[in-house]
């Protein structure tokens, strides 16, 4: 067992793994094949690789890494729009550090910065607003991205800017929303999923109710999971328990952080500022209906897409890049033809190699190297 | 970006805007507590409370033991240093 002694409570981990083995056997009997469980959130992908959880699980459970890293799914055209804004004279472009290295069709924000654009890494959208206050003669544009975890914070920052009458602050909104995304995954005829580990921190905002249709309509269990390795193991056990009993409901393993009803104040900030886009383009997945949000007309003056001219062109992913197949679980990262050669964390070709929450970067950092060690399917 | 980190609210800096000072593993910074304050109580009631902090906003109240455990695990993972460094470096050119 690779990392089990590093767990906070190795005995508990071993006990959980034993129990998972028992229910997995029952589920396999029932289903007649291995169970595919998707972790939707990049935070889980990170924990799973950091602790080698995939290797610890019985062969009858396969973890499929979902499109849950908001940095990973940004299409090149959106990065190009950001670069175009950042390159305009007088602009200070503020972004989370994670987004700096995502490749655009010509360059990333990091390259634009090296060429002289004023691009600053911020920890919080509030820091971008503070930059606007400190630089009244400059235009400060914040790169808003992420699921419902970060969406309320961006919304609240816009509301604050509006209340203060700040004139030189705007947002380029690339926020995406989890439920339409999961629905698109569920509707994909090629996908073979039996259950989900649900995103802990998104659910802390949206609550449990929005997931109910997944059990009711698609007959798949969802367990909202925490990010520690023991949380992940316990959540896998809860999904397998449901599968072995033929149940499919939404359950909450992460109750210490996630209240059943979510955070209504945060949701209110979201609905005041944002509305659904008809479609949003994802890297590798194409266009997904209602999967992104844009700013309401009432906040047009804070909308960078209305204030600046942006190229707004769709750019196809590079020919060699197979991010889409990885995101859909059709191939494993190492099977991509450029993995570890043309595409590495230092020079990412596809977005899944950019942040440690992306499946390819996680494989690169923690997974067995090609030829080194057999894939789990062949391992003892 | 999405993981978040526990911190303790140590002072209220701007009650009307809902801003407070939070202590995250010894690093202090201003965050918004707008999402965790109760409409019917004074914002000062939050002093001493532990919260999960995401990109400069308190998103959820947590109990102290839970906060300590989470901090311990995150620091073993090297994530605390990453997060506090991002807080310190924020906004610099
Ligand atoms: S190796 Fe690179 S190009 Fe291939 S799927 Fe992964 S991120 Fe995309």
3D architecture notes:
The complex is a heterodimer of chains A (380) and B (93). Chain A starts with 9 loop residues before the first helix and ends in a 14-residue tail after the last helix. Helix content of chain A is 38%, strand content 16%. Chain A has 380 residues and is of the alpha/beta class. In chain A, helix 1 runs parallel beside helix 11. Chain A contains 15 helices and 13 strands. In chain A, a hairpin with a 3-residue loop joins strand 11 and strand 12. Chain A folds into 2 domains: 140 residues, HypD, alpha/beta domain 1 (Rossmann fold); 150 residues, Rossmann fold (3-Layer(aba) Sandwich). In chain A, the strands form 4 sheets. Chain A has a 5-stranded parallel beta sheet. By secondary structure, chain B is of the alpha+beta class. Chain B has a 5-stranded antiparallel beta sheet. In chain B, a hairpin with a 2-residue loop joins strand 2 and strand 3. The longest helix of chain B has 13 residues. Chain B is globular. Classes of the chains: A alpha/beta (380), B alpha+beta (93). The interface between A and B is large, with 46 and 33 residues. The complex binds iron/sulfur cluster. The site of iron/sulfur cluster has 14 residues of chain A, from helix 14.
